[in-house]
Every structure is written in structure tokens, then in C-alpha cells.
Amino acid sequence: MTGGEQGQGHDLGGLDWRDGVIPVSRRFDDPYFSLNDGLAETGHVFLAGNNLPARLCPGFQVAELGFGTGLNLLALHLCNPGHPIRFTSFEAFPLDSADIARALDHFPQARAVADPFLTAWAKGERRFEIGSITAEILVGDARATLPQWQGCADAWFLDGFSPAKNPELWSPDLMAEVGRHTAPGGSFATYTAAGHVRRALADAGFAVDRRPGHGRKRHMTVGVLA
User: Fold this and answer.
1) Residue at 113 is within a domain
2) pLDDT at residue 37 in the model
3) Higher-confidence position of 6 and 201
4) Is 137 helix (H, G, I), strand (E, B) or coil?
5) Nearest one of 76, 27, 69 to 50, comparing CA atoms
6) Distance separating alpha carbons of residues 162 and 28, to the nearest angstrom
7) Which one of 24, 89, 110, 190 is CB 3.0 to 4.6 Å from 74, fit for a cystine?
């Protein structure tokens, strides 16, 4: 998860490490992934919430708000049966490769396939291949970069820091841009069930549904472009 304010690099205000393994943004006072098995949460929320991998096919486009540690990308790679697909993520504050590697060490399955990503990231590359996925991370405020994006997603991972702490990444205007950059019949999934987020996504054209969340979270939200 990550924020939507202008900036990049370590403008997050630094990291704290909960239990030595879970990175927490000082700027947003929020962890980058679930304290209750982040990889399992990714599978429950973003993969199952978008009915992946069943929908994956050559040319499929996944887009994401909040790249963070890249855990969602790696989970997508692990579930992809080998289709050439595209992944685009919008990230305001990219972490450095050492912090990402330290965070991914908490997830041996993801860390085992992360080297191509980490090698490219350490070189400053923001477009790279991982397996059969072509990934591109667009650095900057999503409120500026998403409207300029020429792509159209079949599935969205909405994974910014919590709406209460990072409201910029959940604004009605940005959710409207998500809708405008979604293919007919495309979907989104997010861990949050905040009412104002659900309403903004409904106004953006999605048929919105609330589902059981992961772990201690009672609810999450999914939707399909109507």
C-alpha cells in the first residue's frame, strides 16, 4: 500500500519495522501489508476479488494504485500460468531495493521469484519483465499520472494506505479516473469497505459489492464496470 501525494524516493518520512519484518510508513502511520499474512491477504483480496487467475489471458492488463513492496505483483506472477500480461502500478513514494528485499524476506514464496524485479529496481528501472509479465511503475502523484495514462485495465488492485490516513488516493475524482481507465466488464478489488469509497466507485460506473474481508477485517469491496 502507498500514498498518493506528490513526491518520490524516501519522502515517506522514513520507515519503522514492526517486529523487525513489517515496514510501516511514518508519513501515513500504516503498514505496507497486512499484519496477518500479507501474501494471503493479497490472494484473498486482489486475486480472488478480481477472479484471478481464471480471467488471465494473453494481453490481460492489471493496474494498481499503490505499488509499495511489489508484493501484489509477485503474487500475480505466482498465480499466472504463463500468459503474457501487463501490469501497471502508480506509486508516489518508491522504496529502495534494500528495503523492498528486507520486507519480502517475510514471504519466502514471493522472495524466491523476486530477483528479476529487485535487480531491475536497484538499477533504477521502472519498466521490467518478471516471468511473462511486463511491469511498469509510474512514479508520481496518481492524481496527475493516472489521467495521462493511455492504458485501460481489465482488473484493478486498489491498495493505497487506508482511506482515513491517505484520503488523496481514494477521492471521488481519482475513483472516476479508475472507472475511465477500466475496460468494459473490467473489475476492481480493494481491502477497504469505507462507505465513501464504495459510493465513489459506484458513481464511477461500477456495480459495487461488499464481501468478507481477510483475517480480522470483516469486509472488503469488489466491483465490475457496469
Assistant:
1) yes
2) 77
3) 201
4) strand
5) 76
6) 9
7) 110
